[in-house]
Every structure is written in structure tokens, then in C-alpha cells.
Amino acid sequence: EKGGYDSFMLKEIYEQPQAVRDTMGARIDQEKKRIVLPELKMSDTELAAYDRIYIVACGTSMHAGLVGKDVIEKWTRVPVEVAVASEFRYRDPIYTDNTLMIVISQSGETADTLAALREAKKSNVKVLAITNVVGSSVAREADEVLFTWAGPEVAVASTKAYTSQVVTLYLFALYLAEVKGTLPADEIANVVEHLQAIPGKIASMLEESEASRMRDFAASIKEVGSVFFIGRSLDYAVSLEGSLKLKEISYIHSEAYPAGELKHGTLALIEDNVPVIALATQPDIFEKMVSNIVEVKARGGRILGFATEGDTELAKAVDEVIYMPSTLPMLTPILTVIPLQLLAYYASVARGLDVDKPRNLAKSVTVE
Ligand code: F6R
């Protein structure tokens, strides 16, 4: 059932090109290069009226939500707040008449996410769910559902569900941009074309030549006390996910920071040979990112940088660089996360741990 892979996690990592393709599937109008979401029951007019969005989720699904926030805000100019469900459910959220809540849950059974959904519904707030499980509690109780078509995810550490959630958020953001008229049709078509190329680019990140580099880096960090992930904007969102994945299955302590925050405290922890994974894929803040990296290097950090194909600058500032295939900066997170998943996987294997069933954790957290 692991299809020749030695763990479900590795199998699911390699299923990502297909999972992402299936999730986009019939939602792309091939001819017009626009998004169609026939499963939405609400009218376009109703959808266009939302002027505020909460995204509520836990763990990896919340990290997908952070990418969603940036793309929704960029493409539709609707303010989005991302909240951890266990916090959100006990808050007194400020809902307006035009607030939409998006809950994201692979399993559709996470207790805190479900509770947040129920709280919102009690306040007559419309809830749109992004979930991977048809017939799950979240799918049944939400007003609207967009399914991720990732197929069953068995490993405790979420991989293909995350990339499928991110892609669903891209589709939703583009659709919302069309109904709100915030992106012209040719720009939407351009993003759609880039989206269609994403599965092939994910596949290229999974090739042995790329995977072996993450395997080697993982072997080099298997005894370290701590690993740091740094990035800005979308790269920070992906850093959080890379860090969680590493902690979760390799039990190596790690932290993710917005790179500009380092000098407000964390830089004190950087000394000789501390591994730092620096994501620098976003052109608008690339120069700022490089200055942060130079500061880390000056303290002795050992830096694995992530840049976009064609860049020659980052290599001068770091010890080693992994290049992402070029795409639109807004779409890069779905590529950047792939080597980070592999890093966590190989670190776990290198330490002789049970990749699929990390200690203390359950696949579906149905209790508070
Ligand atoms: C981490 C992981 C968890 C889940 C979280 C939410 O790899 O899998 O952080 O993302 O427990 O689960 P769902 O998405 O099922 O609500």
C-alpha cells in the first residue's frame, strides 16, 4: 500500500504533482484561462460583496492559510486575518455583515477548527471550508466547500494536503479577483498558465539530483541542537511550514523567523556552524533578505539558501544554494516547500525515527 516507498510520507511527497493537478482539474477553463468553481452555491454577486476574510485552521493547514492571506490580499485587496483555531474559538471576533470565514482542514475533523466553524455559524457568518475529506464534519457543516483532491493522506506529517490547500487558495483568490474585478482577465490568464506548469515544476524538485542534496544536508544536521529558518513575506510563511515539518518528524529543534526580526533577539543564538535555511525567492524583498543573510554569515552561521533559477547573487552570500524553477513569485511557495519536506523526511530517516508516526502526535486531532 506504500506503493514501493518505504513510508507513506515519502509516497505522499511524490504524489504531489498529481495531487496538485487533480485539485486544479476541472476548475480551470482551458480555453478562457480562467477559474471556474461550480461547486460554490453562493452567487458571484454575493461572493463579490465580502470585504473581510478570516482564515482559521491549525498547524500545517494554518500555514497554507498564511500563503492564502498574501495572495488573496494581493489579488483582491480584501483584508485577510489568519488565526489559529484554538485561539480563534475563544476570542470575540469582530464580524461585519460582509465577513467570510474560510476554514482549512485536511481531515475535516480537527476539534478546534470545527468549533471555530460552529462559532462563526452561530453569528450568521458564512463559512467556506477547504478540506480533503468528503463527508467529514467540516465538509458537512460548512456553508460552502472546496475539496482538495489530494487523495487519502496517511502519514501524520502533512505534505500533499498542504500543497493542495495552497493551490485551492490560489484558485479561490483568482476567482474572487475576477468577480470583484480586481485583476484584469489577461493577468488572471497569465497566473493560470503559470499554475498549469506547477505540477511539472514540483516533479523537477523531486528528481533524484535535487532530493540527494536534501539528503546530504539532512545528514549534516542530524546531530545539531537547533536549526533556523528565515524568510520574508511568502518565504516566511513557507519557513514556518519547513520548521514545523522538521520538528515534527526529526525532533530537531528549529524555529522560523521573519528575517528582519533576527536583530531583535534571535541573532544572539547564531554562532559558528549553526544551520540556517534562508529562503530568498521573493524579488521585491530580495536585497533586504541578502543583507539579513550577510548578518547571519558574519556570526558564523552555516547557510543553505533557496533562490530562484537564474539568480547569481545568493550564491555569493551563502554556503550552498538550492534553485527553484522560475514561476511567478506568488506561486513559488508551492515549490519551495518541496525540498523542505524532503529535508524533514531525510533528517527523520537519518536519525532512525518512525517517519510516518512521530511520537506524541495523532493524524487527526479530534479532541481539544
Ligand atoms: C503537521 C500536521 C498538522 C495538521 C493539523 C491540522 O504536519 O499535519 O499540523 O496540519 O493538525 O489538521 P487538519 O488539517 O486535519 O485540520
From TrEMBL:
Entry keyword set: Aminotransferase, Cytoplasm, Glutamine amidotransferase, Repeat, Transferase
Transferase among keywords: yes
Residue stretches making up the SIS domain: 43-182, 217-358
Main subcellular location: cytoplasm
Broad class of enzyme this protein falls into: transferase
Subcellular compartments: Cytoplasm
EC number: 2.6.1.16
Assembly description: Homodimer.
Function comment: Catalyzes the first step in hexosamine metabolism, converting fructose-6P into glucosamine-6P using glutamine as a nitrogen source.
Protein name: Glutamine--fructose-6-phosphate aminotransferase [isomerizing]
Species of origin: Brevibacillus panacihumi W25
Gene it is expressed from: glmS
